[in-house]
UniProtKB/TrEMBL annotation:
The protein's name in its UniProt record: Putative zinc-finger
Domain Putative zinc-finger: 10-35
Pfam families, per database record: zf-HC2
Keywords: Membrane, Metal-binding, Transcription, Transcription regulation, Transmembrane, Transmembrane helix, Zinc, Zinc-finger
GO MF assignments: zinc ion binding
Signal peptide span: none
Region called Disordered, residue ranges: 116-161
Annotated transmembrane regions: 89-111
InterPro entries to which the protein is assigned, alphabetical: Anti_sigma_zinc_sf (IPR041916), Znf_put (IPR027383)
Bias kind Low complexity: ranges: 134-144
Length: 261
């Protein structure tokens, strides 16, 4: 077997031998432990060498007798591989940029949809507004239920002609009795006040007490309304009226505003 036959190991590993040379080398490989060992060591790098064609392999064989040619060949192979890797890197980078652009657009769209307020995603349904149930209405800006919430119950607006105190009451019938939500304005201070339930049988019950600061509520000094809630076990049908009273230091009460039910 000639030296050239031994040099067929790399060509055989890369599969660049023709059919006749392949058969010849395999016959040689069966009896040459040196070529078999060399072939085994080349298995891990076959993938790296797969880019070398038959012409380059022939040139490599010739370099065994010409060291200068070997150096030139290695330089050429390395340069070719660098160019190939560079082209692959450019192609990969271009693909990443293109994908990143599309992904960025998609991500921006998702963010815009996620951050958009609900009325941007789905516009309000046109049509007649819902009719509030009996005894309810949307409160004004200075009344209970401010902010568009509807106050529950029957509404009663009263301004006392003597004291000038203005009141708005919402009376609600409950299983436990009666609940009342109310607001007061034009209520000067300082003073102590209380809310009294006057029943139809002439009995009374104090269901809430509070203090009024010097600036009062719903006044020029303090335009904020006083908004309170209270409850009684007395059913609505048994109530004649509610009365807001002012209590002096001696415990004597005087009416500020009376709200018939």
């Amino acid at each position: 077997m000639s030296r050239a036959d031994h040099m067929d190991v790399a060509a055989y590993a890369l599969g660049v031998l023709d059919e006749q040379d392949t058969e010849r080398f395999e016959e040689h490989l069966a009896t040459c432990w040196a070529c078999a060992a060399e072939l085994e060591t080349m298995v891990p790098v076959v993938g790296l060498l797969s880019g070398i064609d038959g012409e380059t392999m022939s040139a490599l064989e010739q370099t065994q007798t010409d060291p200068a040619l070997l150096d030139r060949t290695l330089v050429a192979v390395r340069a070719d591989r660098r160019r190939t890797r560079f082209r692959q890197l450019l192609a990969t980078a271009a693909a990443v940029v293109a994908l990143g652009g599309l992904t960025g657009i998609g991500f921006a769209s998702v963010v815009e949809r996620d951050d958009a307020p609900p009325d941007v995603i789905a516009g309000p349904t046109t049509g007649a507004p819902p009719t509030p149930p009996d005894g309810t209405r949307s409160a004004g800006p200075n009344e209970p239920g401010v902010g568009g919430n509807e106050e529950e119950g029957d509404r009663h607006d009263v301004v006392d002609p003597s004291t000038g105190v203005k009141s708005t009451f919402f009376v609600v019938s409950k299983e436990f009795g009666t609940r009342v939500n109310f607001s007061l304005s034009r209520l000067p201070g300082p003073r102590i006040c209380r809310l009294v339930v006057v029943r139809k049988n002439a009995t009374t019950e104090v269901i809430s007490t509070w203090s009024v600061p010097g600036g009062g509520y719903g006044t020029n000094t303090n335009p904020q309304l006083l908004t309170l809630s209270a409850a009684t076990s007395t059913p609505v049908d048994d109530i004649k009226q509610f009365q807001v009273q002012s209590v002096d230091a001696n415990g004597v009460a005087s009416p500020l505003v009376t709200v018939p039910v």
